[in-house]
Amino acid sequence: MIKIVLDAMGGDNAPKAIIEGAYLALEEMDEIEITLVGNEEAIMPFYHEHPRLSLKFTTEVIEMAESPVRAIQKKKDSSIVVGMNMVKNKEADAFVTAGSTGAAIAGGTLLIRRIKGIQRPALAPMLPTRTGGQLLLIDCGANVDCKSSFLKQFGIMGSIYMERVMGIKNPRVCLINNGAEEEKGNALTKEAYQLLKNTDCINFTGNAEGRDVLSGDFDVAVCDGFVGNVFMKSIEGFAAMLMGMLKDSLMSSWKSKLGAILSKKAFAALKKKMDYTEYGGSPLLGINGCVIKSHGSSDAKTIKNSIRQAELFIKRDVVRVISEGIAVQIDPEEEE
Fold it and tell me: Using CA atoms, how far apart are residues 259 and 249, in angstroms rounded to an integer?
């Protein structure tokens, strides 16, 4: 059995949506056990017994606005710290949370610790592409200031994840830049380009401009956390704006309303393709364990899919494969 710890207190819709997501996961996945971690009074109204669901009560909660590092250090009995420590101490295989992103990154780095040779862990969400595929964006916010060697490692980890977990052979890796030509970019991207180009274990296809990242021509997009976070939130905002404008236009006259009715299935398919809940959460790659950071506004379906991500992560032995992949690529002088 794969043992997954689920933060019942994390996210805008906790604990109800989190617990509902746990039950959905247990219905669909026969090889997992889930431990809900959180406040007893908050959990119990939504809990009913299940042979593969257990409870671990805590007395503290890390809030979104708190300093992540300070909260991890001070709130020892919070759901995030308790859950992370269960993974660290091998009492569980994976931790899933929709709570504070900063606390999840800090906890993964300070408690579970980095894989030997990894300079920085990275958050890596999955995004839909124009051709119906998926793209791993790495990093999307864990490291706003990066060295070129960090980006090289992001490329290696992202490639391993897409191959091992998503089943894509020889994933195509690109570097997000302000031009497709090799000489384009700032000092960071120019240096990173050369490192990625000369990394034998990845299929580096060169630079990708922002407009081309989701074209379907790439499987992994490498960038620093500042660029990645702005890119991802811009995509989310544009998608919401586009769907809103489309709805307004379709409701503007009886003719357009008729067209909307006739196109209902096509719009439903488009909405599903653009829906982040279909992809679950973002793995924190580069730490010595499995942490999946789900979206703060996650509903039950998102939590279920995040748990499925954790299950696949463990089944495909991603930590070991990343460890082996990094070991043969890293210059000892790069280690921190």
Answer: 11
**Whole-number CA gyration radius for the chain:** 20
- Tokens 């995509």: give the residue: 235
Specify the pairing of strand 94-97 against strand 172-176. unpaired
No. of H helices and E strands in the chain? 12, 12
Work out the burial of residue 95: count CB atoms within 10 Å of its CB; fewer than 13 is exposed, 13-18 middle, 19 or more buried.
buried
Kind of pairing between the strands at 122-123 and 126-128: unpaired
86-142 pLDDT, tens digit per residue, is 999 999 999 999 999 999 999 999 999 999 999 999 999 999 898 888 899 999 988
HSE-CB at 156 with a 13 A cutoff on CA atoms is: 30
* C-alpha dist (Å) from residue 89 to 81, 93, 106, 246: 12, 10, 17, 50
Closest CA to 236 of 187, 196, 277: 277
Helix/strand/coil (H/E/C) assignment for every residue in 181-205: CCCCCCHHHHHHHHHHHCCCCCEEE
